[in-house]
Amino acid sequence: MSASGAKKLWGGRFSGETDPLMEAFNESIHFDRRMYAADIQGSQAYAKALLKKGILTSEEQQTLDKGLQSVLQEWQANTFELRPGDEDIHTANERRLGELVGAVAGKLHTGRSRNDQVATDMRLWLRDEVTRMIGFLRQVIEALTFRAEQDIDVLMPGYTHLQRAQPIRWSHLLLSYAFWFQQDTMRLEQFMPRINQLPLGSGALAGNPFQVDREWLAQELGFSSVTPNSLYGTSDRDFVAEFLFHCSMTMIHISRLAEDLIIYSSAEFGFVQLADAYSTGSSLMPQKKNPDSLELLRGKCGRVFGGMSGFMMAYKGLPSTYNKDMQEDKEPMFDAVDTLSGSLQITAAVVATLK
């Protein structure tokens, strides 16, 4: 996507055009577009903060709010059209806002940097996703505890070193996993206060020159506190690293449960039978019933681990404040959300339908 002739948010000092190869290399719109609602929510709140400081008139703020609401509706209706020069979600939304409301759109970015804007968007977006994942974890726990109660009288061999050791209840094994997933749930709940700090108002690195009311902004956007230091606020991505770790731990537990069920569903063990809805067959050997859902759960664990490792390597050696390397924070975060959310839903369904 070339942006020849397109006005950039950061283009004030530049006279020449960016190489199209660099345009494509620099863009993040193809993945950060999923934060469109968080970006608009943050902008609507920021416009109100500018109104409180007297930078916007009431009419201007209302115009911006209605325009941003129209942009949101276009995204929701899948009618938003990306244009050359829309290098990221912030640029795309601001460009479209300008088309809808005119020159007043340029006042929205007064005192704001993309550095504090993107940090705010990420926290807003991730906060909602963590809440959703906690719900999926509870569904897995409910499926495990329901089966444990339903199958309370079922006995099985317990294993160490994959060798028969002592007899146990099937319920005892199921509940061991329920407790692991309960720990995963608690970790995410304890993580929420560390996400729920507002960076907006930190500017590029040295604060907001118009001294917008950050405490009011935090309240408006549902944050429990503000980041206490502007350098920290714009450059902190510890919350991404911690989130990826929590996702990785949960995927370990999913993978181990999947491994147990793969073994126990084999003909050699025959303890459980996977529902047809979560199995596949063989084109050559019609007698086979393959536990593909479980094998995919086991395999996707490595995907989340890889994202965490890649992000940590990109993050480890950066100088203070924002650096473009930090654009590499989003794809592993998005992928971990998608992978873990899907895996938790499949896990709950597999457990609920086991025979």
Automatic annotation (TrEMBL):
Main EC class the enzyme belongs to: lyase
Pathway stated in the Swiss-Prot or TrEMBL entry: Amino-acid biosynthesis; L-arginine biosynthesis; L-arginine from L-ornithine and carbamoyl phosphate: step 3/3
Xref: Gene3D superfamilies: Fumarase/aspartase (Central domain), Fumarase/aspartase (N-terminal domain)
Matches recorded under Pfam families: Lyase_1
Domain Fumarate lyase N-terminal, chain residue ranges per copy: 12-306
Reaction equations catalysed: 2-(N(omega)-L-arginino)succinate = fumarate + L-arginine
Enzyme Commission code(s) on record: 4.3.2.1
GO MF term set: argininosuccinate lyase activity
Entry-linked CDD domains: Argininosuccinate_lyase (cd01359)
PROSITE patterns given in the database record: FUMARATE_LYASES
Key word Lyase present: yes
GO biological process, one term: L-arginine biosynthetic process via ornithine
Tree of life domain: Eukaryota
A single GO cellular-component term on record: cytosol
Keywords carried by this UniProt record: Lyase
Matching NCBIfam families: argH
Record family assignment: Belongs to the lyase 1 family. Argininosuccinate lyase subfamily.
UniProt protein name: Argininosuccinate lyase
Source organism per UniProt: Coemansia brasiliensis
Gene: ARG4
